[in-house]
Amino acid sequence: MTLSLEAAAWIRRFHPAPSATARLVCFPHAGGSASYFHPVSAALSPAVEVLAVQYPGRQDRHTEPLVDDLFVLADGLAEVLAAETAGPVAFFGHSMGASLAFEVARRLEPRGTRLLGLFVSGRRAPTAARDERTHEKDDEGLLAEVKRLSGTDAQVLENDELVRMVLPALRSDYKAAELYHYRPGADVSCPVVALIGDHDPKVTEAEARQWAAHTSGGFELKTYPGGHFYLNEHAAAVTRLIGERLAG
């Protein structure tokens, strides 16, 4: 299926798979971009076609204004994805992307989108709130937090020019993620699979288990060795899990 012009701005389809039996929409973490999911797309194709979300203000959208409100992002993406989620589809989001995937799902299910599943990675449940203010720190403080989580290539953080390029997107995304608070209302009806690292400082097992309260479908919790970016070491296992769930 050819993406509409509006969707083409938001969605990257690295391995078009017209014969795929399902689609997986992937939502990046704070400071992340669509290219993070290129390996996932390669691994799942052609059985599953991956649509990776590209937020404004990064990579080929670097000239566009950043969006530091998760609800604004969710509203915009829901409009874009409404026309792209016909047929079997699932969502995967990591960290901030998990909250965003959940909010987009909340908007699309009442409009007729039937999700096969919602995979929420490295993120506590919406009602498991923390008072975090990393986005208010100076540049050094923000970078120290990013280094602590090991989510950005160390070589990038040592390059002053690259740091200046990524800092605005990082700060904007951290603000969106940290100021996000659950708004009561209908949740989702699809199965939810929560995935966490066993040493992730951003989410405990108890906080992840609270996702079960936000779906009328089934709930699973999968724990992997590692921290907030356990995905980097366990990409093959996570991709295999997603493929099995979508095939089932």
TrEMBL record:
<keyword id="KW-0378">Hydrolase</keyword>
<comment type="similarity">
    <text>Belongs to the thioesterase family.</text>
</comment>
<dbReference type="GO" id="GO:0016787">
    <property type="term" value="F:hydrolase activity"/>
</dbReference>
<dbReference type="InterPro" id="IPR029058">
    <property type="entry name" value="AB_hydrolase_fold"/>
</dbReference>
<dbReference type="GO" id="GO:0008610">
    <property type="term" value="P:lipid biosynthetic process"/>
</dbReference>
<dbReference type="InterPro" id="IPR020802">
    <property type="entry name" value="TesA-like"/>
</dbReference>
<dbReference type="InterPro" id="IPR012223">
    <property type="entry name" value="TEII"/>
</dbReference>
<feature type="domain" description="Thioesterase TesA-like">
    <location>
        <begin position="25"/>
        <end position="246"/>
    </location>
</feature>
<dbReference type="Pfam" id="PF00975">
    <property type="entry name" value="Thioesterase"/>
</dbReference>
<protein>
    <submittedName>
        <fullName>Alpha/beta fold hydrolase</fullName>
    </submittedName>
</protein>
<dbReference type="InterPro" id="IPR001031">
    <property type="entry name" value="Thioesterase"/>
</dbReference>
